[in-house]
Amino acid sequence: MHILFLTDNFFPESNAPASRTFEHCREWVRAGHVVTVITCAPNFPKGKVFDGYQNRLWQQEVIKGIRVIRVWSYVTANEGFVKRILDYQSFMLSATLAAPFVRGVDVVVGTSPQFFTACSAYLVSRMKRIPFVFELRDIWPESIKAVGVMKADSLAYRWLERLEMFLYRKASQIVTVTHAFRNTLIRRGIDGTKINVVTNGVDLSHFAPQSKDAELLQRLALQDMFVAGYIGTHGMAHALETLLEAAETLQQMPEADKVRLVFLGDGARKLDIVAKSEAMGLRNVLFLESVPKHEVVRYWSVLDVAVIHLRKNELFTTVIPSKLFECMGMGIPVLHGVAGESAEIVSREQVGEVFEPENAQQLVAGLLRMRNRPAAYASFQQNGLAASWRYDRKHLAKQMLQVLTNLVKK
Hints:
By secondary structure, the protein is α/β, with parallel strands linked by helices. The chain has helices at about 15-30, 80-100, 115-130, 140-145, 155-170, 180-185, 215-220, 240-250, 270-280, 295-300, 325-330, 340-350, 360-370, 375-390, 395-410, and strands at about 1-5, 35-40, 60-65, 65-70, 105-110, 130-135, 175, 195, 225-230, 260-265, 285-290, 305-310, 335, 350-355. It has an 8-stranded mixed sheet, sandwiched between helices.
């Protein structure tokens, strides 16, 4: 089977969509299938093309047996709604024009969060007369409404919502990353028999328990510290001000000299968060720039606990942050400030504590419990390692491959 996968994020980018797609495609190649990925020059999140690449009309390489075709797109940082829409639409056009040059394709997959890539996949499916699979990673455009970028009564929002429903109806199969997404689509009238759930997971060959990186501890002056960390996108959906408020409370406690809060990553709100931290006079907070994917594990290793957080919004109760599974794989307990399906996983697997989103006091209380109750902390570590095998990316890739295989056989 020849699978054509359209995505605007791919290795060597290290965000959740890029990681999921790369790891799935790698496993499909290992299973004996041909996989071609059409993507753009790697540039996320800063909008700067990575070293060794150029923003050309056409570039081609082979990564782990995956044929990767990179096409031109309007490159911009992960900030500014209008610029990002231009980015998405330019890739949609370039991917659609490039796809006819890929021969012998059996099925095309288009992935979100934004669905302009799925639009391209639909057009390609019509041109090639092959099935179209929509991998749904986010309920878009509702997610951009949830962070206040767009109003529900605007003409643009209504138009995007109609396009969204059109794509759901036209997809031969839909693969969602949460059961909540599947239930949402069924409530909106989409046939449940064509909706499959393949959750996010973890590449256990990469994310595995390891000792704290001694060089990093020394360079970052974190020796003998209890280190809580947020690793990931600093975006509008993440409400990282809550973490700063928690740091401010901790700074006034006797434990202040022994606790540090580390932020690693970039995003639309990074500069605002740094400026706010400086204005608050926080001395127990450390901001680090994004690092290549192969380096991220070193930074995970210095954390005693990982903080996962999203804004308090009904929509975000339906998502499962992929970093939760990476924490499990490394045996790092979590403080989970996301309600809904992901909180149920944390509680069911007993891999950490759940706190109310945007509640800094609950975050502080949970962090202090993690630090001061070593037996409970050790239990969270062991539970995470045990649970991680249920979310092994190899197993999940096989699940999605079965969906594609069954579709092509029909």
